Amino acid sequence: RRVDGGWYDSYNTAVFMDSSGLRMYYHKSKLVPLVEYLPYPKYLGGLKMFYIELGGSMGNYATQSKRSVYKSHDSSTVIGTAICYESVHGNYYREYVLNGATVMSIITNDGWWLNSPGYKQHLWFDQLRAIETRRSIARCGNTGVSALINQKGDIVARTAWWKIEWLRGELNLNDKITTFVRFGDYIGRVSFASMMLFLCLAILSLLKKSVKGKE
């Protein structure tokens, strides 16, 4: 962004602070199109009129290249933090664990879903992330649902939707790397490649039948 002849970067940022005064930051880097960034602004600048108001400020936020994790002052706990929409992307999310996270936290603005299936589905995605990575999750939603999720994807404690509540509990740490974390969404990639192969074979088969029918 440009202000008074200069430029500055805006971020959607999580801040980690512990009792020792340690502070670390993570800038959200999987941004929501037409809310937090406009792709190819040089060519699509006219689409700014369609920016969606989902709470908070809107605009082209800056990002970072690495999935930062927060180490406690004695390095006994390594916390990864996904912000909102980032937890939907399994391949992206696993990078926190590859960078050393032994437990995960998720902070999310689900208020714009209102009372619809959207906020419930977002929670289900987070349960899936726990299973894929075998990392427990402390989840905080501004309007609910906040939850503690264990490494099996079970919700061990949760708040209601749109109610002021608090949670207290224990989460297990884990430093083991799962197959999904190590190799990523290879099943999805293999499935997509197989689908495209079968589609091409089906098209070739139809073309051959069409040619034979004309002979």
Characterize this entry briefly.
Helix content is 30%, strand content 19%.
List its salient traits.
alpha+beta, Nitrilase/N-carbamoyl-D-aminoacid amidohydrolase, six-stranded mixed sheet, two-stranded antiparallel sheet, 19% strand, globular
CATH class category label of the largest domain: Alpha Beta
How far do the termini sit from each other?
65 Å
CATH topology category name of the largest domain: Nitrilase/N-carbamoyl-D-aminoacid amidohydrolase
What's the SSE pattern? EEEEHEEHEHEEEHH
Number of domains: 2
**Overall number of strands:** 10
So, the CATH homologous superfamily of the largest domain? Carbon-nitrogen hydrolase
Strand content: 15-25%
- Low-pLDDT runs: none
How is the biggest beta sheet arranged? 6 strands, mixed
Strand order of the largest sheet: 5-6-7-8-9-10
**Number of helical elements:** 5
Architecture of the largest domain, CATH level 2?
Answer: 4-Layer Sandwich
State the share of residues found in helices, binned by percent: 25-40%
SSE class = alpha+beta
3D structure, described in words:
It is built from 5 helices and 10 strands. With 215 residues, it is of the alpha+beta class. The protein folds into 2 domains: 2-183, Nitrilase/N-carbamoyl-D-aminoacid amidohydrolase (4-Layer Sandwich), CATH 3.60.110.10; 185-215. The strands form 3 sheets. It has a 6-stranded mixed sheet with strand order 5-6-7-8-9-10, covered by helices on one side. Strands 1-2 form a two-stranded antiparallel ribbon. It is globular. The mean pLDDT is 89.
